[in-house]
Amino acid sequence: MPQQSAVTLREVSKVYGDVSALERFSLDVPTGRLVCLLGPSGCGKTTTLRLIAGFVAPTHGWVFIEGADVTAKPPHLRDIGIVFQHHALFPHLSVFENVEFGLRNIGARKVERRERVNEMLATVRLVGLGGRYPRELSGGQQQRVALARALVLRPAVLLLDEPFSNLDAQLRVHMRDEVRSLVHQLNATTILVTHDQEEALAMADQIVVMNKGQIEQVGQPSEVYEVPESRFVAEFIGRCNLLPCKSAGRQRSVMVAGDQSLTISNDMTRESGVVAIRPEHFVVANGSSLNRLRVEIVQFTYLGARTYLHVSLQNLKMVVDLPSTETKGLMIGAPLELTVDPKFVRFLP
Amino acid sequence: MLWQNNKRSILTWGLFQAIAYFVLALPSLVIIGASFNPGSVLTFPPHGLTLAWYVRAVQTPAFTDSFLLSVELASIATVLSLLAGTPAAYALERYRLPGLQSVQTLLLSPIVIPAIVLGIGLLMFCNLIGIGQGLAALLLGHFVLTLPYVVRTLISNFSLFDVVLEEAAQSLRASRLVIWYRVILPNILPGLLSAAIFSFVTSFGNVALSIFLVSGSTATLPVQMFASVEHSSDPTLAAVASFVIFITGIIVLGIDRLAGLQRLV
Predict the structure, then answer these.
(1) In DSSP terms, which residues pair with A218 in a beta bridge?
(2) What's the pLDDT score for residue B264?
(3) ipTM above 0.95, yes or no
(4) Do the two domains A5-231 and A240-348 of this chain adopt the same fold?
């Protein structure tokens, strides 16, 4: 069985009643990496996490942690750590006792426990707060306790279940940077579950995009953003214009909106489909530009450095994201010629 | 609330509260007053002050024996009810299994069934299984009597206890046993205390059920008091009753200081 993976799922299916949450799902999480399961609610990402933790048993398939089959093992016999959405700190225990909880269960001696807890509290910058109770801590501090509590056992894999969703926006950004540098510093294999694509892009070494219990695409953040392999991925991660297209009869060339031709970056697998173009990949055309689209401006949204243009291409609506410096003098209702580098135009079936 | 801004309403409300408390406390006040009355007939208001009836009560074996029996019975019944009721309440609250609702109704039914009916039923049952009247019958009866209070109190406690804490403990290598004594029990401690008080007080004060189950040599304190009120009106009874009121008051106050009564109910 696979050795270098911290976690391996093989052909895992999970059926609830007559609803299939996961279907023949396989995944390898390499040791020391931060892998993000990203998808809309109901895509099976939380089920996947709970399967790895052992809170639910798969209907079919196997779960391996560090090469050992743990499919039949209960959670407390698996080498995992979890940070829950609402932290789930023990309210009746102090910060120190919360972090110490797991060490007691593995039979660590008192001296060792104190040493490891203090070391861990220092790592998450909570020195001096060991005597506090969870209710006396801020949201960010509670999160750090939850992390310390899980990491102090040096688990083979750290599972993060939407850990930032109940923090306010500013703290969320701060905590995700902090968590990322912490797990990298400790070289802890981490699986993060989130529906927030920005969070996934910002934190993950590898993103697993999930939909309807199956994997849509696996790749580095830049890969899933720049080279989406399906309409779902293109639309779920970032903003994307999907324009219906037909083959123009030549290699890597399509017709959109009836008569406008575009050169694309990949081979067409079917006669018709869509082309995906990110809003920020459009440029206002000048005299010599190729790959042009003639559009009409419908609406502006000025956002400081950038300006969002809502435009129509025949009767197709598109969003264009331009530097505000390039949108001076443009008017609603006016025609506009845009161009896009072929490498940013992808055909999707 | 609007009426809180209105001074006259506050006054009216205060008066209403005072009357309500007074009416509630009146029987206790009467009995306590009567217990200090030197005369040999149970009367109120008292015409003097004496502790003679308390001395007499302590010297009456029928009262002291039955008091000890009642304490013993209430304690054992409470412990049994907690031991059986805690897991039962946990299961009823946590698991959604077919038929569990009926089990819950059955478990809680002694609260709504008149105790006298329960008493007759239990008496027939005890005779049927051959234990007859006596301590064993009383124990069984009081277990049935107190269990619903424990189950009801703890169900509401478990419904407030976040199951994610158990999962967190599991992910931190805790076995089921460790989860129970290091996570669940500490968090439901107020509920356990409250259930224990309800259970103890219910058992300790019960007449209607006990009266069917006592044998000649094993009368509980309330049954003994009930019996003695029939053939004497001497204030010893008032002293015993007052004593029970004091004890109960001390327990409730003590627990209020320890845990805060508001949190329990």
Answers:
(1) A208
(2) 46
(3) no
(4) no
Residue B221 DSSP label? H
- The CA-atom distances, in angstroms, between B256 and each of A113, A343, B20, B188, B263 are 36, 74, 21, 16, 9
Give how far Cα A66 sits from Cα of A13, A26, A165, A190, A212, Å: 20, 15, 29, 13, 27
Contact A90 B183 (CB under 8 A): yes
Chain B residues whose CB is inside 8 A of the A147 CB are none
pLDDT for position B259: 61
Which DSSP helix (H) or strand (E) runs through A247?
Answer: strand A241-247
Segment (H or E) for A335: strand A335-340
Domain over B31-264 is classified CATH 1.10.3720.10: yes
Quick one: pLDDT at residue A291? Answer: 84
Q: Which two tokens stand for residue A323?
A: 């530097």
The backbone torsions φ and ψ at residue A212, rounded to the nearest 5 degrees and listed phi first, read: 50, 45
Q: What residues contact residue A21 under an 8 Å CB cut-off, 6+ apart?
A: A14, A15, A44, A47, A213
Contacts of A74 by beta carbon, 8 Å cutoff, 6+ apart = A54, B170
What's the pLDDT at A114?
A: 95
C-alpha span between B177 and A273 (Å, rounded): 58
User: Cα separation of B213 and B124, whole Å?
Assistant: 10
| Binding-face residues of B in 138-197 toward A, CB within 8 A | 162, 164-165, 167-175, 178, 182-183, 186-187
- Domain positions in chain A are 5-231, 240-348
Tell me chain B's radius of gyration from C-alpha atoms. 22
Q: What is the pLDDT of residue B1?
A: 47
Residue A16 sits at the chain B interface (C-beta within 8 Å): no
Instruction: Choose among A89, A105, A73: nearest CA to B177.
Output: A105
Residue A1 has pLDDT above 50, yes or no: no
The answer to whether A190 and A34 have CB atoms below 8 angstroms apart is: yes
Residue among A76, A101, A102 minimizing CB distance to B175: A76
Chain B neighbors of A81, CB-CB under 8 A: 171-172
Rounded to 10 deg, the angle between the B100-112 and B61-94 helix axes is 150
CATH topology of domain A240-348: OB fold (Dihydrolipoamide Acetyltransferase, E2P) (2.40.50)
Length of chain B equals: 265
Q: Which residue of B has its CA nearest to A102?
A: B172
CATH of domain A5-231: 3.40.50.300
Quick check: A80 and B171 CB within 8 A?
yes
DSSP state of A66: T
What are A72-78's contacts with CB under 8 Å, separation 24+? A74/B170, A75/B167, A75/B170, A75/B171, A76/A105, A76/B170, A76/B171, A76/B172, A76/B173, A76/B174, A76/B175, A77/B173, A78/A53, A78/A54
Residue where the block lists tokens 């991660």: A237
What are the residue ranges spanned by the domains of chain B? 31-264
pLDDT at B45 over 80: no
> B174 and A76: CB-CB below 8 Å?
yes
Nearest to B170 among A76, A90, A149 (CB): A76
Q: Do residues A58 and A12 touch, judged by C-beta distance below 8 A?
A: yes
Please indicate if any CB of chain B lies within 8 Å of the CB of A272.
no
Q: Print burial letters for A154-192: b (CB count within 10 Å at least 16), e (below 16).
A: ebbbbbbbbbbeebeeebbeebbebbbebbeebebbbbb
Q: How far is CA B3 from CA B7, B13, B16, in A?
A: 8, 10, 14
What's the length of chain A?
349
